[in-house]
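Lecture notes, part 5. Sequence design as translation. It can be helpful to think of inverse folding as translation between two languages: the language of shapes and the language of residues. The source text, in structure tokens, appears below.
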């Protein structure tokens, strides 16, 4: 059997044979009983079940951590502002400390600074960007000490008046619990990422009782994918943490709202425009926070002292607007219930932003979700009455406007669009708000993405020189099948053919045969291995040897129904540049061959199509410009 060019014969590589009068050596190379083919990936398997069990254990622990952190924050608040030992939830806004109030957040900042310097600098910030960075660049490995340093530092920061929510530290702590467990049990980096995301989602679900939005947040900010083997453990963890929360008697809406009337078409237009404005505000908020952070970088003191300096601003603002102190969940509820309105609400939003942005920029420990909800809700709720008087026919509801404002600001700042919409619904259990939320949050997301490349979650990572992708789509190579991209039929070599004869065949064709590898078949036409051009032309290989004797390793093949992504991964695992293509029914009968060049050509066709669309858009834009001129 001689090498066959694809157009020499109507026969395929599996049955084409022409001796051309050449002598055939009797010796044959090693015939393979088994070929190395990629296993078709399953959506879930037994391993997924094991990760689900581990994720639910992490979630149960995160549920108790959430309850414990809330209690510690309440205790620190009682001690700091009222001088009493109590775990009862209380707002620092009712304190009577007078000017001494300024000292309280400064002390809290000092404690956080000391813990960060001699404990772990990773406790600084609101937690989610740090978790994202570990997922992206450190195989989801978070130091074990973060599991107690992060919640403890947040308890001191928030309990002494820090204008943060407890959700950020709880999310970070839950993620740390999942990561630490993933470092103690034998798991892959991907499975460890799933456990980290499960712990983070559990932390959010345990704090707010919003299990669906917690899963969406994990997908949009931590998993960077939507696959069953990742989503199922995270969803079960979120449900488990919510069940733990309900076991403590916290089963209702965290921000309850009264019954609302469905919005009119005119009101919907207002809510969408409001969302777009919130997108602009989200851009400004993000830039302001990082501008303040940069300003702290230029201070001539060690960063350990920055949280205390930020505490001065927190205390001063707290003197003017006591409601800005602490987590402020009661402020969100009062805003959505219409208890805080008008100028009072607007002042709350502005002062909360000043206090929170300076404190966060100082590098203290605290969350971003509750402050963003407070600011967005205050802006939305305060502007609604103005436009309601201007457009009485629209029936604009200030409470829905506040709801849209808080969801849209978070959507624009975090770029977690679906999580923002569903969170606002789950936190209020108000179905009437779903449609306004969808319109407003989408408009905010669009404007924010149009004006700012990175979000408040990813800007810090980007500033460290790392690339963070904000779009997740199906791998292009996963959409193409090997059978549609491979070379058919393949040029094969007879295992019994002498090497000298094949060398003569290559020399006779000069550069006409550019193939760098050839499948080797036995007398029955079944695959025996693969040899490369280098193997055949190697001077150390005696010409009287057979092609089959040059086969050095078990052959790796790819099925014709496999995807190009599976082919690419299999090439990497087998450390080869080409794969014989076979069918599942006959895994040793070659029907074609696929190479790395074929993978690149598939991408080339995709880019050509994209360029064609881009050129069409350019021509259309040029035509519009000419018509306008």
């Amino acid at each position: 059997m001689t090498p066959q060019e694809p157009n020499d014969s109507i026969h395929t590589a599996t049955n084409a044979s022409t001796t051309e009068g050449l002598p055939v050596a009797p010796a044959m190379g090693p015939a393979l009983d088994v070929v190395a083919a990629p296993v078709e990936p399953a959506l879930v398997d037994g391993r997924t079940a094991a990760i689900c069990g581990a994720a639910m254990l992490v979630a149960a622990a995160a549920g108790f951590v959430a309850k414990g952190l809330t209690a510690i924050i309440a205790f620190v608040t009682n001690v700091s502002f009222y001088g009493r030992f109590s775990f009862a939830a209380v707002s620092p806004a009712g304190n009577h400390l007078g000017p001494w109030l300024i000292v309280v957040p400064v002390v809290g900042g000092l404690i956080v600074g000391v813990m960060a310097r001699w404990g772990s600098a990773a406790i600084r910030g609101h937690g989610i960007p740090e978790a994202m960075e570990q997922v992206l660049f450190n195989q989801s490995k978070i130091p074990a000490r973060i599991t107690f340093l992060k919640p403890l530092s947040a308890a001191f920061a928030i309990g002494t008046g820090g204008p943060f929510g407890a959700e950020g530290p709880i999310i970070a702590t839950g993620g740390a619990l999942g990561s630490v467990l993933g470092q103690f049990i034998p798991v892959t980096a991907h499975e460890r990422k799933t456990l980290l995301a499960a712990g983070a989602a559990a932390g959010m679900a345990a704090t707010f009782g919003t299990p669906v939005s917690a899963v969406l947040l994990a997908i949009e900010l931590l998993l960077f994918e939507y696959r069953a083997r990742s989503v199922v453990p995270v969803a079960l963890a979120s449900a488990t943490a919510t069940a733990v929360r309900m076991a403590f008697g916290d089963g209702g809406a965290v921000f309850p709202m009264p019954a609302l009337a469905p919005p009119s078409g005119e009101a919907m237009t207002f809510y969408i425009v409001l969302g777009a404005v919130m997108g602009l505000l989200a851009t400004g908020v993000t830039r302001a926070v990082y501008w303040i952070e940069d300003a702290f970088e230029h201070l001539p003191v060690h960063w350990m002292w920055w949280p205390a300096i930020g505490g001065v601003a927190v205390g001063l603002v707290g003197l003017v607007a006591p409601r800005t102190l602490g987590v402020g969940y009661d402020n969100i509820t009062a805003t959505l219930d219409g208890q805080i309105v008008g100028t009072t609400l607007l002042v709350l939003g502005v002062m909360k932003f000043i206090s929170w942005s300076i404190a966060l920029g100082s590098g203290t420990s605290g969350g971003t979700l509750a402050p963003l909800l407070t600011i967005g809700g205050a802006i939305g709720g305060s502007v609604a009455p103005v436009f309601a008087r201007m457009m009485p026919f629209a029936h604009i509801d200030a409470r829905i406007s506040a709801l849209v404002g808080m969801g849209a600001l978070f959507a624009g700042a975090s770029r977690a669009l679906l999580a923002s919409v569903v969170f606002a619904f789950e936190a209020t259990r108000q179905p009437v708000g779903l449609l306004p939320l969808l319109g407003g949050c989408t408009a905010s997301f669009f404007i924010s993405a149009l004006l700012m490349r990175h979000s408040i979650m990813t800007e810090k990572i980007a500033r460290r020189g790392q690339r963070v992708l904000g779009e997740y789509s199906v791998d292009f190579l996963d959409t193409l099948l090997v059978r549609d991209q491979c070379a058919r039929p393949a040029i094969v070599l007879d295992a019994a053919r002498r090497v000298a004869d094949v060398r003569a065949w290559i020399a006779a064709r000069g550069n006409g045969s550019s193939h760098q590898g050839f499948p080797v078949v036995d007398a029955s036409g079944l695959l025996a291995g693969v040899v490369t051009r280098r193997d055949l032309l190697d001077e150390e290989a005696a010409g009287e040897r057979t092609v089959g004797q040059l086969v050095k390793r078990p052959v790796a093949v790819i099925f014709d129904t496999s995807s190009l992504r599976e082919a690419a991964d299999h090439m990497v695992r087998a450390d080869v540049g080409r794969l014989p293509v076979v069918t599942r029914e006959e895994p040793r009968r070659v029907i074609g061959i696929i190479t790395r060049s074929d993978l690149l050509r598939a991408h080339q066709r995709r880019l050509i199509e994209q360029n064609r669309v881009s050129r069409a858009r350019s021509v259309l834009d040029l035509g519009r410009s000419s018509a306008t001129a």
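The translated text above is only one of many valid answers, since several sequences can fold into similar shapes. The chain is about 60% helix and 5% strand.
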